[in-house]
Amino acid sequence: MSFLDMIKKSVVEEFTSSLSTGDIFFSLFVAFVAALIICFVYKKTYTGVSYTKSFILSIVLLAMVTSLVIRTINSNLALSLGMVGALSIVRFRTAVKDPVDTIFMFWAITAGIMSGAGLYLITIIATLMLGIFYIVCYMTAFHPTQKYLLVIKADEDFAEEIRKVAGKKKKCILKTESYKGDKVEFTFEVASRDYASELTKLKEKKEVESIHLVSID
Questions:
Q1: Domain span at residue 189?
Q2: Model pLDDT for residues 22-52, shown as the tens digit of each residue
Q3: Same domain, residue pair 33 and 90
Q4: In the structure, what pLDDT confidence band is assigned to residue 164 with cuts at 50, 70 and 90?
Q5: What are the backbone dihedrals phi and psi of residue 148, each rounded to the nearest 5 degrees, phi first?
Q6: What is d(CA 144, CA 147) in angstroms, rounded to the nearest whole number?
Q7: Coil, strand or helix: which one is 142?
Q8: CATH code, 194
Q9: How much is the average pLDDT of 11-15?
Q10: I need a surface site. Which of 17, 36, 81, 169 has the fewest CB within 10 A?
C-alpha cells in the first residue's frame, strides 16, 4: 500500500458511515441546554437598557444549527465537502454593536461544535464553568464602573459656583460648557452616582434650573 493510499484510508476512517436519528436529537438537545445556560448568563450580566429577544433566540439557534452541521460533517466525507463548499459562499454582514455580544455568539458556536462532535458531558461542564467564571469576573474588579453624564442648566452668574463644586471631585470631568442668553449648561462625566451627589445638591439653589443624570451604556 502506497503512502497516499494510507493517508486516504486514515481520512476516510475518521468519518462514520451511519447517522442515527437518536444521535442527531441528542446532539441538538445538549446544544439547546448549553445555549440556555449561555442565555441565562447573558441576561444576568447584560448592562444595556433591555436585551432583545431576537439575540437570545439567535444564540439558541446558532448553537443547535452548529451542532447539526458538525454532526453531518462528522458522518460522511462527501457531505462534509459539500457543506464546506456551501458555507464558503455565505457572507454574514450583520453588525454587532457590543463586542461582548460577539463573544457570546462565539461561545454558542463552540458549544454547538462540541455537542456535534459527541462531547456531551464536556459541553455542559465547559459551558457551566465558563458561565461561572464570567459571572465572577462581572461581579468583581473586571466589571467596569458604570459612568454617568451630569447635565446642569443654571443662570450664567452661577457658573463659577458650579465649577468650584465640580473641581473638588477628582473623577468629575467637564465635557461641554454652552451658553444661551443668560443661561449656561454644563455636561460632566462622573464615575458614579456618589461622585455626582455634591453637584446634585445644587438643585436646591434657585439659580439652578434643572439637573439631569444620564447613565452611559
A1: 147-216
A2: 888 898 999 999 999 999 999 888 766 556 7
A3: yes
A4: confident
A5: -135, 155
A6: 9
A7: coil
A8: 3.30.70.260
A9: 49
A10: 17
First to last CA, the chain: 64
Place of cell 445555549: 35
Alpha carbons 40 and 107: distance in angstroms, whole number: 13
Residues 36 and 127 both lie in one domain: yes
User: Which of 109, 139, 169 is at the close of a domain?
Assistant: 139
Given a contact cutoff of 8 angstroms between Cβ atoms, the answer to whether 63 and 42 are in contact is: no
- Residue carrying C-alpha cell 459541553: 123
Same domain, 94 and 184: no
Sort strands 147-155 and 183-190 into parallel, antiparallel or unpaired.
Answer: antiparallel
What pLDDT, in 10s, does the model give residues 127-150? 999 999 998 888 876 555 667 788
Say how far apart CA 29 and CA 27 lie, in whole Å.
Answer: 5
5-18 average pLDDT score: 51
Side chain identity at 170, as an amino acid letter?
K
Cα–chain center distance at 209: 39
Q: Are 48 and 98 a contacting pair, CB within 8 Å?
A: yes
Q: Who wins on pLDDT, 185 or 173?
A: 185
Cα angle for residues 27, 102, 131 (degrees, 5° grid): 60
Q: Minimal CA–CA distance to 104: which of 158, 152, 46? A: 46
| Co-location of 76 and 181 in the same domain | no
Q: Using one digit for the tens of pLDDT, what is the confidence trace for 52-63?
A: 788 889 899 989
